[in-house]
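Reopening this one. Same input as before:
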Amino acid sequence: MSKQLIECVPNISEGRDEAKIKAISSVVETVEGVRLLDVDPGKATNRTVITFVGEPQAVIDAAFLLIKKASELIDMSKHSGEHPRFGATDVCPLVPISNISMEETAQWAHKLGKRVGEDLGIPIYFYENAAKSKDRQNLATVRSGEYEGLEKKLSDPNWKPDEGPAEFVKARTSGVTAISARDFLVAYNINLNTTSTRRANSIAFDIREAGRVKREGNPITGTILTDAQGEPVREPGKLKSVKGIGWYIEEYGIAQISYNLTNISITPLHIAFDETEKSATERGMRITGSELIGLVPKKVLIDAADFFLKKQERSLGIPEMEKMKIAIKSLGLDELKPFDPREKVIEYLIEEKTGALVDMTLTEFANETSKESPAPGGGSIAAYVGALGVSLGGMVANLSAHKRGWDERWEEFSDWAVKAEKLKVELLHLVDEDTQAFNRIMEAFGMPKNTDSEKAKRSEAIQDATKYAISIPYQTMVKAYESMEICEAMVLQGNPNSITDGAVGALCARSAVIGAELNVRINAVDLKDRAFADDMLKKASALRAKAIEKEASILKATEAKI
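Same output, byte for byte:
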């Protein structure tokens, strides 16, 4: 069963003292099974966002140690900063990453809060999905009054903490901590060409879901309108699931709009940027760049890149890291400091370093193949040749999408390029998967065979590994044949200056199909399950014949156009 993973993103009220930040964040690394992913301090806000990930119990242990260390090193009675706050560890949200529900994550939040309250004597409030009452779901409500209003708040029965003592003793220096289970939140600041906090706020109020209060007469100085219950009447902003406020950052000498995007499925980052840009322009300002605080899922930047590529009527079928570059430049994420996606995208940080074949240089891969070792062998090479073939098809599609005079056809070729990019990624994965399939067979043969039970387990493992070693090259056949269809379309419809590139791609794809079919056949020889073997051999033979026929058709079309 796959591991349960949760992310923890505590925000501590210290962003200037590097020694304290290091001391607090480093305790996370003392817990086995937890990976510290990011430490992102802000001097003006005097706040640091720390991100780590692991299995639930390990994350809870690490979070407890961090909260404890922060309470020892940070004195809230002496704290000042631009960001709202009421605790040394101000907030400590838990985010479900994989194989765990929000409900389970909330249970872990409650366990953490109970432990901190009982063992450290720090008052705890639960919010968002961990909230124990509806009136405490919103963090802004829970944190109202901030640290300065804490002594009075803790004496109010309506604000009795969910865990820990309702007293301003330990809290005088530690403050209180808000703990939650929540969806992935993106903390995102947009930079403006102004120093005016009021002007920045005017844009924030245009955009954020809460909008602005309605006033009678003058929209700035007029009397605030109220409803029948005496609550202020609000004019909603443009975007749902967005919180925002304007502030001046002395460190940068500019005003920013600080957003929390609480549901990126409802309002993606690029939409927040685009709508902010429109509002800024209407108000005589412009965006100069933006800043991501903490980490983001890969999808956030990929979707942003696709958004801007579509606006430019450019092909979306380009490699992932190229899309990262597009997103970074389009959003101005590198305006204030260098932005490295491998340090800011969560998937890149948690991916295991496996020494994959596809991570080698061309020379290293060729050298590895030529060694006195059976792997990587023909199956891996077939998959790699297929990846090269579909890459050529994708290249022609991208060239065609950008061809002068063909502007109205960019989406047609972009669709082909996207298909090619997807197949390329899948075939590259099969390069290593074919080698892994061979290794599984070798591991099965290496199992002990001293007793009848061991012999039975070994035999079963060999047969299972052999089936896998048949299915992997067959998958290569299927993907390589699909790539032939892309190459054929590019020869028939693509940029006429690149038809031979499409044809060479088809030749590579056909070679991949035939090479992989040979591996299906040889791996099926010793399989005891003949029904499975015969079915795979029949399908593989038919696909090989189709690939040879399609290759002939593509070559004929190519020759006619040269």
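So the earlier flakiness isn't reproducible anymore. For the record, The chain has 18 helices and 15 strands.
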